Amino acid sequence: MNMKSFDTNGDFSQNYKFLIGAILPRPIATVSTINLDGSNNLAPFSFFNGVCPKPMIVAFSPVIRTSTGQKKDTLINIEREKEFVINFTTEEIAQKINNASAELPYGEDEFSYANLTPIDSEKVKAKRVLESPIHFECKLRDLISYGDAPGAGSLVTGEVVKIHVREDLLDNGRILTDIYNPIGRGAGNDWIKCSERVQYERQMKAQIQN
Length: 210
Ligand SMILES: Cc1cc2nc3c(=O)[nH]c(=O)nc-3n(C[C@H](O)[C@H](O)[C@H](O)COP(=O)(O)O)c2cc1C
Hints:
The protein is α+β, with helices and mostly antiparallel strands. It is built from 5 helices and 13 strands. The longest helix is centred in the first third of the chain and has 11 residues.
């Protein structure tokens, strides 16, 4: 089969299409932060993943807002407050989380815009999303900027300092995927359900044996 090959030094939108079309499915971190005036900010990020378990590090990437060429509010808040919460995204709340991605003016609360309920965290000021069944409270570890132009972005890593998991999701310390019912992000307007899965036996020594 012939393959087409592309350089990456053209317009950023072509690279973007390959990132979102190839990296599938992507988990969705719904990140809550505190605005300068103490109000809440909330936005989903699917350029997101775990990095390592101890220290427990997660990473996500806010890109420069293409409509304005400005940093996203989430990044502005994390630069100042050095902390944030990752709220995990389920099928049940997917549409509300999608609404939370609206580009509201700085200082306007996406919790109320998306009809989601803020609850206090234990170790950070940013609120948690009640309707999300898993919350990671995070302290900023690294902030790497790859530029200020549209198409550029940053890598934010955070150390998870507190984990909250809804009790019914837990079975002997493991999270039950079927009860959790996460949803992932695809290309374009696609979201990807996790209800259909396959199992393959591990071919290496499992990192966690039981
Ligand atoms: C499911 C989903 C995933 C998203 N992933 C990202 C992402 O990884 N990086 C990013 O910069 N924007 C992403 N966005 C767009 C942001 O959520 C959007 O720009 C939002 O307005 C940013 O809010 P803020 O300015 O309050 O930070 C995503 C949107 C949706 C709906």
